[in-house]
Design brief:
Elements: E1 2-10, H1 14-21, H2 24-28, E2 34-37, E3 49-56, E4 59-71, E5 79-87, E6 91-100, E7 113-123, H3 131-150
Antiparallel strand pairs: 1-7, 2-3, 3-4, 4-5, 5-6, 6-7
Length: 153
């Protein structure tokens, strides 16, 4: 499986960052050719499920995911952590989002908040020898996704 990591630092509250990163439908607006469907109720917390549908017209594939770990930042936690498991026939693996609560900064109302997005993916039919290429491409795509999700507004 291909593994990659993207890290960003933003100046805003950890709670705001967590809210943006765990707004699953918003991911569909950032991942190319993808929309989020079938979001469970509730949409957050362990057991939440949704599917990323990627494709054009009738040609595409589903990437069903389930939240298996959920610990929002705050409430005494220095790190918020969400882990998703990908349960599809085409894409397998996991994704993990960590939001690091900043140490008290008396001169600022918010941030800096560090975000780490890690993912390990396997794509059916793609040989393991191509994992470095898959990881490089995924890192580029998800760096843009992360930047878009973290952008205010």
């Amino acid at each position: 499986m291909a593994r990659f990591e993207v890290e960003r630092t933003v100046r805003t509250s950890a709670e705001a960052v967590w809210g943006r990163l765990t707004d699953w439908p918003a991911h569909g607006g950032r991942v190319p050719l993808t929309r989020i469907v079938g979001v469970s109720a509730p949409a957050t917390g362990v057991g939440a499920r949704f599917t990323a549908r990627t494709g054009v017209g009738r040609v595409g594939f589903d990437d069903p995911m389930e939240v298996v770990a959920w610990a929002p930042p705050g409430a005494g936690r220095a790190v918020g952590r969400c882990r998703l498991v990908k349960r599809g026939r085409v894409v397998r693996g996991w994704a993990e989002i960590e939001v690091y609560v900043p140490a008290a900064d008396p001169g600022s109302a918010a941030g800096p908040v560090r975000v780490v997005w890690r993912e390990e993916i396997g794509v059916r039919g793609v040989p393991r020898a191509l994992d470095p290429l898959v990881a490089r491409a995924a890192r580029r795509v998800f760096a843009r996704v992360l930047d878009g999700l973290l952008r205010p507004g």
